[in-house]
Amino acid sequence: MLSLPPELVENILICIAAMGFPTAIAALAQTCRFLRDFIDGATDHHLWRNIFLTSFDDPRELIYTNKRKFACRSGHDRPRREVEWAAEFKRRVWTKHYIARHTQPLHVQKVYGLRSRAAAVSQIDLSPTFDSDSILRALRTILSVMQTTLPPNQTSQGVLYLSDNTSSRSGNSAFPENYSLSKIFHSTTEYPIINPDPTPSLNIPWLESTLQRGLPAALIARLSGDHVETEWEQTLEAQALGEIICCTGFLPVRELREERIGRLASSAASNNTGKSNPNITSLDMSVDAQKARARHRAREHVYDMQYLHRRRCWGPFLLVPKSSASAGPRSTSVANAGDVPSRNWPSSDVNEPYSSESDSDFVPPDDASQTSWSTNTERDDAAEQRRHLPLPGGTKKRELPTNEQLIPDWTWLASARIISEANLRDWDSSRVDEFVKGQVWRAGFWSQTEIERDRLSDGVLPPAAASATGNSSATQTVYHDWAGVGGIWRRCVSWLGYEDLVQRQWDLNHAMEDPTIFENMRIVPLRLRVVGYDPPATSAFPDRPTLKIEGESGGPDWAGSPDGEGDDVRRIHGSVSMLADGHVRWSLFTVSENPQDGDEYASEGIQIGGVGSDAGFIGLWTGATHTDGDPIGPFWQWRVA
């Protein structure tokens, strides 16, 4: 090896990684000082860049595309940093081996008592064999791979806006604006059409092989145990796990290995009941039992009426501390109750995008978009007023937390995903599988850069858009729907009857396992459109304006009659904005049946996966007035056309 030219040695190392033996590179570096310095001490990053690109998507292409979409004409110049190719590659290799070591078949011991020759007690040791720092590092790495997965090819799968103000996508019918919501409901599919990706991602096979056995049993048991672990839900690893579950769904432990221990004396048997070691349990670890317990624990979390709070902005957000409620952006550096880390790779990109110009051999894609956007200078007075709520018995106002302070509560959102998916499976499991088992969390499907001509409510063409297109007409506007708002949606809403919801608050830890409990679920259609812009909601994303949206939605009494006569259709309005940690916030308000009564329901949701993903967003709905006794429930909303 030492006599070979350096270029040939580099090619050998790259081939080793491409053939699936990345640890051999580390072994080779330990053979002698020269190879160690050659592999780990190189000042040029091209070797590790080429090694990285044999197994994973190029993050520079994703960042470059986003830059061209959202900042090419915005005038914002963000600071840049280089990709840490070697460190990131080593971290991903370590994570795959770490997960493999801790997801071996779970040992189930059948313990027979001396006085009972037939009955046996199944005992499982769920003592974690990992430390919090290691599992947090692994979970963050999995999220990093998900978040840097390139979107599907949008040239053949994107939204096309036609001259007659209709839209189509991947075989779906086009719908003029005068179509009723009922007619659209019966003309669209329940779930988005998942087309094969003509440009497969390298990240997907890595994720599939890494998660083929799921996650460590001791970690999954936190979600499907016999009680809710409130303190653990606030930890960093719980929040990271929750974000993964939101993308993949609940991952039960599937591989069990039964071991018969034999008959024990009664005294010996009592020592093996798990009382002395709380991690030894007799839980039924069959897949169905795990899913049932996970659903019960999720209900206890989601239907807790005490969860609603002003400092959560009445949504699925971590409680903003009182001291920082009006002190500016919220810090995420301390692992205390209510604090979680920022997203590992892409959220740091927000402020420090990867520098593609530093790599001389990086060739940007030819079809990168150059569409710009512009914002309106006038604020929506009604939306601004909703940010302040009166104090009981006084006129003083309390200001709601800002997007700079809000952080998604991923444990709550994961519980909402578990409930919604379980209810959808009860309704029709065959059609749900195709939807939830795909990589629906991949970014970009609905948010491709597009030029759409439409009349805004104010009828004013933003100056930047006019200069970009050379069109000075004041009756048309060119805008970019960066979140993929405009289109036809489905919304799965779940709730408990008010009597069940209120009475079970006093015994929440046992009530949700009651077989007589009845959970309601309804799927309604929505049609949404962008009607204007507000300035960006956070300084971390100066090139993504707040989208003001309006539309129609099926109401609580929606029946979906084919003729649409007398159906419950409600007006809906709200906004889509960015949070400081890189997630997309959806705020929607449903107007009462009598519009003069104002808003009846409020919904707060978080985009699942990347911007514009097929997974849509998951969140919390409640009463719009935020009074004592307001209902609470989860919803899942995805776009279909």
TrEMBL record:
InterPro entries: F-box-like_dom_sf, F-box_dom. Residues 325-335, 344-357 have a biased composition (Polar residues). Residues 325-402, 541-567 are annotated as: Disordered. It comes from the Eukaryota. Keywords: Membrane, Transmembrane, Transmembrane helix. Signal peptide: none annotated. Residues 377-387 have a biased composition (Basic and acidic residues). Residues 1-51 form the F-box domain. PROSITE patterns: FBOX (PS50181). Coiled coil: none annotated. The keyword Acyltransferase does not apply. The chain crosses the membrane at residues 12-29. SUPFAM superfamilies: F-box domain (SSF81383). This is F-box domain-containing protein.
